[in-house]
Specification:
With about 220 residues, the chain is an alpha+beta fold. The chain is about 30% helix and about 35% strand. The strands form 2 sheets. An 11-stranded antiparallel beta sheet has the order 6-7-3-4-5-8-12-11-10-9-13, with helices on both faces. Strands 1-2 form a two-stranded antiparallel ribbon. Mean pLDDT is about 85; it is low at about 1-30.
């Protein structure tokens, strides 16, 4: 009995030491109110600020500093819409919640064709072509503002949690061809995409661009209660 007690005390002591070591390890997460996905503010009536960046104003280079990560930038030419520049970050850790980020960058349309023609490599994907940009064009992109942001958390969120954090959506639109439902928050420029079997996708845009996001959903879906 005495030896068993010593073993138990030894295990407890080892756990305590392990916990103490873990507590002293560096924490790579960013924990501030500004990095909560439901912390959406509007510095002006038309702008949206999320994760410490103001869409339509904050340059990509400044966003990279805020996220403490360098984005993977490429020009994407979809088969079904106009081409644009995307910046992808594999992982951010906000308040202990890991996620991926995809940002679209507001590069003037007249500059995109030149970037496409100067591209170093072209990779075909199932939905279009992805072009690797030259160093000079990458510098130009980093000086341009982030137009929209897509946040892809690594965990599933129950609808009750979404309602608690974001409130009830103004509209719910279900895409008829796929099993996706869009919860729309026009007052925040936010579209939360839900699939019963997948993790949610949160798309943030400026208020003035939100109509362009909503229009194709109505054309290819139906409003549900």
């Amino acid at each position: 009995m005495g030896s068993d007690k010593k073993i138990i005390l030894g295990v407890v002591g080892l756990i305590a030491v392990t916990i103490a070591i873990l507590l002293t390890l560096p924490d790579n997460s960013t924990s501030t109110p500004d990095t909560l996905p439901w912390r959406i503010t509007h510095p002006t009536p038309e702008s949206t600020r999320i994760f410490g960046i103001t869409l339509g104003e904050t340059a990509l280079a400044e966003a990279e500093k805020t996220f403490k990560e360098e984005a993977e930038i490429s020009l994407f030419k979809p088969t079904d819409r106009d081409m644009g520049v995307e910046a992808f970050i594999e992982e951010v850790n906000f308040n202990g919640l890991k996620a991926k980020l995809v940002m679209t960058v507001a590069v003037p349309a007249e500059e995109l064709t030149g970037m496409f023609n100067r591209g170093l490599r072209m990779n075909a994907t199932g939905s279009g072509k992805r072009i690797t940009l030259t160093p000079d064009d990458l510098d130009k992109v980093r000086k341009a503002p982030v137009a929209s942001l897509t946040y892809l958390p690594n965990v599933r969120l129950e609808e009750s949690v979404i309602v608690k954090r974001f409130g009830e959506p103004a509209e719910r639109i279900r895409e008829t061809k796929v099993n996706l439902t869009h919860w729309l928050y026009p007052q925040h420029g936010l579209d939360i995409i839900l699939n019963p079997k997948e993790k949610p996708v949160l798309q943030y845009s400026t208020l003035q661009d939100f109509g362009a996001l909503r229009a194709p959903l109505l054309a290819n879906g139906e409003i549900v209660k």
